[in-house]
């Protein structure tokens, strides 16, 4: 069974989905089924149950919101993807709170050539576990915030929160 919890945040509810203590999806939506339908068919076949408390994952979110910017790093996550996408997601988790990188820099950190910036952008767009896999910390090299699956205002808030807490 996939367990889901809604955690309130200053930018709206964060849906957390977990399987056996491992976060498999997280996103800024009040409806956990929006995240559930993005999971693999195998995970969806397990069903979804909304619970009151997911333990470590929800505690980490509350600690992050309270200013412990490293709290999300300790939570185990798992999401599907090609070997390239998994390398990019792992590199994303290494981008420290309060800092940002460009898509080209993210590709380099993943051991890919600078020309792989498009793959980095795709990995961010397909990321199922925000903000644990912090795609909000990736900005276009031409300036601005770029896009964000949950809306640019959420991305702006996350970056500002991390800057304030440092």
Automatic annotation (TrEMBL):
It catalyses: a 4-O-methyl-thymidine in DNA + L-cysteinyl-[protein] = a thymidine in DNA + S-methyl-L-cysteinyl-[protein]; a 6-O-methyl-2'-deoxyguanosine in DNA + L-cysteinyl-[protein] = S-methyl-L-cysteinyl-[protein] + a 2'-deoxyguanosine in DNA. It comes from Nonomuraea jabiensis. Keywords: DNA damage, DNA repair, Methyltransferase, Transferase. Its EC number is 2.1.1.63. GO terms for biological process: DNA repair; methylation. The lineage of its organism: Bacteria, Bacillati, Actinomycetota, Actinomycetes, Streptosporangiales. Coiled coil: none annotated. PROSITE patterns: MGMT (PS00374). This is Methylated-DNA-[protein]-cysteine S-methyltransferase. InterPro entries: MethylDNA_cys_MeTrfase_AS (IPR001497), MethylDNA_cys_MeTrfase_DNA-bd (IPR014048), MethylDNA_cys_MeTrfase_DNAb (IPR036217), WH-like_DNA-bd_sf (IPR036388). Pfam families: DNA_binding_1 (PF01035).
